[in-house]
């Protein structure tokens, strides 16, 4: 891509990530009650037999949580091509680990990003989607 192409982009920011849940109510509880994301809207789309839950991510952007009848399982391990994981920025990784652990979430040990020196860890949502906590100070 040339410099001219990059300067003329019409992309203005990140809008959302969409997730399909195998059990909508379990995932809704996880993302709203465990992770604490705020509900923007919840819609049942009868023509698709599908729920759509719009959640606000602090700092900008949204997460869309969908239900569909009998979705296939996601391949998480070994890692497949495509979306690798969802990452949330935190200012106090140890505090967030303690909060999530108290709510029954199992997290990996803290690691250090060799390129930035920042600390990070991973855990999984109810469908085994990898989620990262990435500390920014």
How would you summarize this macromolecular structure in one to three sentences?
19% of the residues lie in helices and 34% in strands. It has 137 residues and is of the alpha/beta class. The protein is globular.
Which key features would you list for this structure?
137 residues; alpha/beta; 2,3-Dihydroxybiphenyl 1,2-Dioxygenase, domain 1; four-stranded mixed β-sheet; 3 helices; 8 strands; 34% strand; globular
In N-to-C order, the SSE pattern is HEHEEEEHEEE
Q: What is the number of E strands? A: 8
Estimated share of beta-strand residues: 25-35%
- Level-1 CATH class name of the largest domain: Alpha Beta
Number of domains: 2
Question: Count of helices?
Answer: 3
What Rg do the Cα atoms give?
Answer: 17 Å
- Major sheet size, sense and barrel closure: 4 strands, mixed
Q: What spatial form do the alpha-carbon principal axes imply?
A: globular
Unreliable spans are: none
Average pLDDT value? 90
Give the CATH architecture of the largest domain: Roll
Strand order, main sheet: write it out.
Answer: 1-4-3-2
Amount of helix: 10-25%
Question: Which homologous superfamily in CATH is the superfamily of the largest domain?
Answer: 2,3-Dihydroxybiphenyl 1,2-Dioxygenase, domain 1
Helix/strand-derived class?
Answer: alpha/beta
How far apart lie the N and C ends? 32 Å
Q: At the third CATH level, what is the topology name of the largest domain?
A: 2,3-Dihydroxybiphenyl 1,2-Dioxygenase, domain 1
């Amino acid at each position: 891509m040339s410099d001219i192409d990059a300067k003329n982009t019409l992309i203005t920011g990140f809008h959302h990530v969409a997730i399909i849940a195998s059990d909508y109510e379990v995932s809704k509880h996880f993302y709203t009650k465990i992770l604490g994301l705020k509900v923007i809207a919840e819609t049942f789309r009868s023509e698709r037999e599908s729920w759509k839950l719009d959640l606000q991510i602090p700092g900008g952007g949204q997460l869309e949580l969908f239900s569909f009848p009998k979705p296939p399982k996601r391949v998480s391990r070994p890692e497949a091509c495509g979306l690798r994981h969802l990452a949330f920025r935190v200012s106090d990784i140890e505090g967030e680990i303690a909060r999530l652990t108290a709510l029954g979430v199992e997290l990996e040990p803290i690691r250090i990003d060799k390129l930035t020196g920042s600390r990070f860890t991973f855990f999984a949502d109810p469908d085994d989607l990898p989620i990262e906590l990435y500390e920014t100070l």
